[in-house]
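Priority: medium. Attachment 1 of 2:
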């Protein structure tokens, strides 16, 4: 899943070397925290959050086979 998020986000940003995905796993959920360069945050979120929503949709669909809930947080 981490590789999927990186594959989606890296072509969108100007500084792909700053893309980092951290994973935190609990009993009932998995949280992925996506960190990008401060100047790229707008590109990842998109107008009215459309790009972020699309990324979340793909990640949630890919993780639907798991028994845990999946969350994606976007930050710098």
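Attachment 2 of 2:
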């Amino acid at each position: 899943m981490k590789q999927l998020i990186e594959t989606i986000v890296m072509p969108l940003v100007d500084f792909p070397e700053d893309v980092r995905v951290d994973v935190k796993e609990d009993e009932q959920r998995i949280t992925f925290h996506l960190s990008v360069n401060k100047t790229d945050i707008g590109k990842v979120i998109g107008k009215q959050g459309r790009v972020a929503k699309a990324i979340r949709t793909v990640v949630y669909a890919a993780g639907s086979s798991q028994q845990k809930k999946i969350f994606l947080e976007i930050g710098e």
